[in-house]
Automatic annotation (TrEMBL):
Pfam family, one: Amidohydro_2
Coiled coil: none
Keywords: Hydrolase
One GO MF term attached to the UniProt entry: hydrolase activity
Segments forming domain Amidohydrolase-related: 126-365
The protein's name in its UniProt record: Amidohydrolase
InterPro entries found in the cross-reference section: Amidohydro-rel (IPR006680), Metal_Hydrolase (IPR032466)
PANTHER family referenced in this protein's UniProt entry, alphabetically: AMIDOHYDROLASE 2 FAMILY PROTEIN, NODULIN 6
Keyword Transmembrane helix in annotation: no
Superkingdom: Bacteria
Length: 367
């Protein structure tokens, strides 16, 4: 396959602006915020091994360089140079950046795009906008209108919105658009509780429908994430009633990550015309097993419904590693099919272009 096949990364975050010691590096490598020492090091897992295999040469080291040597070299080069090398080597044609998660100051969108030599577009996190509106002293009755206005303003230059309901209430959301009285009551509950984070089934649902009303593609966090999330509640099958209700709108609905529910997600992509799927975050965590993951996703998911994302956050390595492993996975699946006589070389070439970027461009830039 063409190694230069540029990818649209339709879900990622930005990079941290500091040098990292081993502990800080490992803390950003996976979703485990405090990797313990009891079980050894994350370098002894498929993602750590993939860093040594694929990332070491980008820092001028031998393939499989030991972790300590890798981290020494990283510090020697400094985070700016490390960022430039990995983002540059990722081979991206566009980045769609979720700006709603910023536990520390991250590189701005324009600077991130400059490192990747590709345009960086914004995805607005619905719950963050709701939290900002509620923090600004709005009344419960005034919340709905204020949220709509704020969301319209925040998304003026954005290409989509995202919901993290999976993290907060889980995905068991009712299908209907909530009534104005329900929204007012939910906003009142939030304001009385003085909570910082939206975690109310009615508010998530309201925000999702508002995104749809603006005509914007809606991304959903599905499957694995940091341990805040109850993974059982992030099963995409829970979302079926809402996905079904949203079908008539024609708005693209993007199921992110999905692992270990990628087969369920593949089914949803097959049966619902507006549902799209990816294996972001999971692909680089699985390292050399990414091909098996993509093969399982596409047992049912049509190639016209599969997008690429890294879900990279913090470490520049992750943009490059995810892209490298995804290209290899795609090649493994598509070339494997050609060799087995399941489809032609021409089909494989077409699927490659669809998954690498055409599907994402159709979803975000022409719908
Ligand atoms: Zn993410």
């Amino acid at each position: 396959m063409e190694p230069e096949l540029p990818l649209v990364d339709h879900h990622c975050h930005s990079v941290v602006r500091r040098d990292l010691d081993r502990h800080a590096f490992e803390a950003l490598l996976t979703e485990a915020p405090e990797p313990g020492t009891l079980g050894g090091s994350l370098f002894d897992s498929r993602i750590g091994l993939a860093v040594r295999r694929w990332c070491a040469p980008v820092l001028d080291l031998e393939t499989h360089a030991p972790a300590d040597e890798y981290l020494r070299r990283r510090t020697e080069l400094g985070h700016t140079e490390v960022g430039r090398r990995f983002l540059g080597a990722a081979g991206l044609s566009a980045l769609l950046v979720d700006t709603g998660f910023e536990p520390e100051p991250l590189l701005g969108l324009a600077d991130l795009g400059a490192l990747a030599d590709a345009p960086a577009h914004e995805i607005v996190r619905l719950e963050q906008v709701a939290e900002q509106v509620l923090a600004d002293g709005v009344s419960a009755a005034g919340f709905a209108a204020s949220f709509r206005d704020r969301l319209a303003a925040r998304t003026e230059n954005a290409v989509g919105v995202k919901s993290v309901a999976a993290y907060r209430t889980g995905l068991d959301l009712a299908p209907e658009r909530p009534s104005p009285a329900e929204v007012t009551a939910a906003a009142g509950r939030f304001l009385r509780a003085g909570q910082g984070r939206v975690a109310d089934e009615v508010l998530h649902r309201f925000a999702i429908w508002c995104g749809v009303d603006l005509g914007l593609p809606v991304q959903f966090h599905i499957g694995l994430g940091d341990p805040d999330l109850n993974l059982r509640d992030a099963d995409p099958l829970l979302l079926m009633p809402l996905l079904r209700a949203l079908q008539p709108t024609g708005i693209p609905l993007l199921l992110l990550h999905n692992y270990p529910f990628h087969r369920e997600a593949g089914y949803l992509a097959q049966v619902f015309g507006t549902v799209f799927v990816d294996i972001g975050l999971a692909a680089h965590n699985l390292g050399d097993r990414a091909g098996a993951l993509l093969a399982e996703l596409t047992e049912l998911a049509p190639f016209g419904k599969v997008l690429y994302s890294s879900d990279a956050f913090g470490l520049p390595e992750l943009y490059f590693l995810a892209a490298t492993l995804f290209r290899r996975a795609l090649d493994e699946v598509l070339t494997g099919g050609v060799e087995a006589g399941s489809w032609t070389e021409a089909d494989a070439g077409r699927f490659r272009r669809m998954v690498a970027g055409d599907n994402a461009r159709r979803v975000y830039f022409t719908s």
